[in-house]
Inverse folding.
């Protein structure tokens, strides 16, 4: 059942973890953050994994973990911003859960992450340029995998949580009706 899980995708600084925790509470699901689980299991933070294994090493670990976590039930999963770059990850997300994209502007990302020095891909003199390039590459991919998309700029967290939970519950009802019809008419 696709609506057994809710997966959150989007750029860094969009609010995936903050909003994901609250959506999970509202739905009565368990919240998981892919990056935090990876750090717990490896005993190393993301910047150290990047330093030791490079971006590809990190992406390989991320993909293996995503394959495992997306098979769980009744979870809200906040994914890393680059998880959608791998086609196999996109397939797992689409097939195993309701995917929500959080949208945010580059300007808002810069504001939200102005003091954050823990993101390896932002260790560059021109953060705005890097975020703009990432948005141009990744936003169309996020959109392609998402069942529902919502902007977070200038919105209260609780309002975004309400809209996501409402849309998820509507889709779950539609899915249950489709299953009932198939059961009645095999």
């Amino acid at each position: 059942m696709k609506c057994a899980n809710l997966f959150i995708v989007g750029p860094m600084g969009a609010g995936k973890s903050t909003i994901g925790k609250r959506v999970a509470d509202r739905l009565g699901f368990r919240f998981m953050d892919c990056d935090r689980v990876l750090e717990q299991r490896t005993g190393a933070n993301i910047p150290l994994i990047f330093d030791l294994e490079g971006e590809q090493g990190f992406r390989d670990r991320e993909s293996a973990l995503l394959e495992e976590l997306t098979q769980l039930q009744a979870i809200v999963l906040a994914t890393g911003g680059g998880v959608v770059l791998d086609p196999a990850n996109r397939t797992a997300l689409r097939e195993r859960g309701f995917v929500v994209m959080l949208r945010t502007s580059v300007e808002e990302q810069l504001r939200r992450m102005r003091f954050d020095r823990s993101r390896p891909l932002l260790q560059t003199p021109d953060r705005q340029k890097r975020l703009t390039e990432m948005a141009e590459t990744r936003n169309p991919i996020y959109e392609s995998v998402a069942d529902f998309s919502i902007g977070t700029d200038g919105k209260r967290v609780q309002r975004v949580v309400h809209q996501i939970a409402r849309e998820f519950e509507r889709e779950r009802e539609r899915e249950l009706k489709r299953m009932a019809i198939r059961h009645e008419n095999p």
